[in-house]
Amino acid sequence: MRIGELAERAGTTTRTLRYYEKRGLLPARRDAHGHRDYDERDLKLLRQIRTLRDFGFDLEETRPFVECLRAGHPEGDSCPASLAVYRRKLAELDALIGELRAVRATVGAQLARAERARDRLAAEAAVPGGLAPGCELGGNQ
Amino acid sequence: MRIGELAERAGTTTRTLRYYEKRGLLPARRDAHGHRDYDERDLKLLRQIRTLRDFGFDLEETRPFVECLRAGHPEGDSCPASLAVYRRKLAELDALIGELRAVRATVGAQLARAERARDRLAAEAAVPGGLAPGCELGGNQ
DNA sequence: CCTTGCCCTGACGCCGACGTCAAGGCGTAC
DNA sequence: GTACGCCTTGACGTCGGCGTCAGGGCAAGG
């Protein structure tokens, strides 16, 4: 099949396929007209790439999976190099999730603090006698 | 103080300060020589920006905090616009963390599956007579 | 005098994964 | 003939947040 058909069947674009070829990830044979010629195996390789990319893998990280398939293995993750990428990715994800949760906690605490400060000021404004005007906390002279 | 000193005191670079100025985030007065002239308040604004950026806020998202401080409020998050950014960021973080955990679960499952497949093949190779070659996949108990 | 050290502006480089033109070739259909 | 649709290569644009020159100024110190 030609590039347009492969792109459509994989839910991507011709530009992407040419890019993958330039990166050496998905080389294509050529027909008599110089047009790229792909087969079902290429579709399988491409789907492997896209699946991993959907998970946030870099293009380079998909390479071991593609080479594993091309070597004749039934799955892209049938090779040790692919498993190593999985493990590295899991470690990355765990680290990132940990950082994000820490940030989330900090930002959440900041929001809570800021809201308390706001409510305190609002309460003082609503009930001017509630706190002495000279109270230092408000800062409002 | 001049740009070099401010950069050093805030733990950033002069390039960054010029960039913030160009973005209209941290305008600077000029002295007789045309050199940027900052004061302690600018340092406070800058620290607010850097803190938020360390949390992963975009530069534009820090603007409400900076303007809030510049308007005379004691904290950058003393204004409703800042609180809105906090809330938006929390929602973003929650969504992102959720996605990442889903990806983590999927990748973890893929790794486990691939490792089982590998171990199964290794066991078959180690004990060639242990299972009949015609044994159906996955049915080896 | 020259060097050192700070400052200035302007502009290109970088990262990743493509999008989007520009300009042209070839085959088929009208 | 010519319009259409697919293909080709090449090259620039995108996004954010700067890094890194290039080229020049101004003041103090030796």
Automatic annotation (TrEMBL), chains A, B:
<keyword id="KW-0805">Transcription regulation</keyword>
<keyword id="KW-0238">DNA-binding</keyword>
<dbReference type="InterPro" id="IPR000551">
    <property type="entry name" value="MerR-type_HTH_dom"/>
</dbReference>
<keyword id="KW-0804">Transcription</keyword>
<feature type="domain" description="HTH merR-type">
    <location>
        <begin position="1"/>
        <end position="68"/>
    </location>
</feature>
<dbReference type="InterPro" id="IPR009061">
    <property type="entry name" value="DNA-bd_dom_put_sf"/>
</dbReference>
<dbReference type="InterPro" id="IPR047057">
    <property type="entry name" value="MerR_fam"/>
</dbReference>
<protein>
    <submittedName>
        <fullName>MerR family transcriptional regulator</fullName>
    </submittedName>
</protein>
<dbReference type="Pfam" id="PF13411">
    <property type="entry name" value="MerR_1"/>
</dbReference>
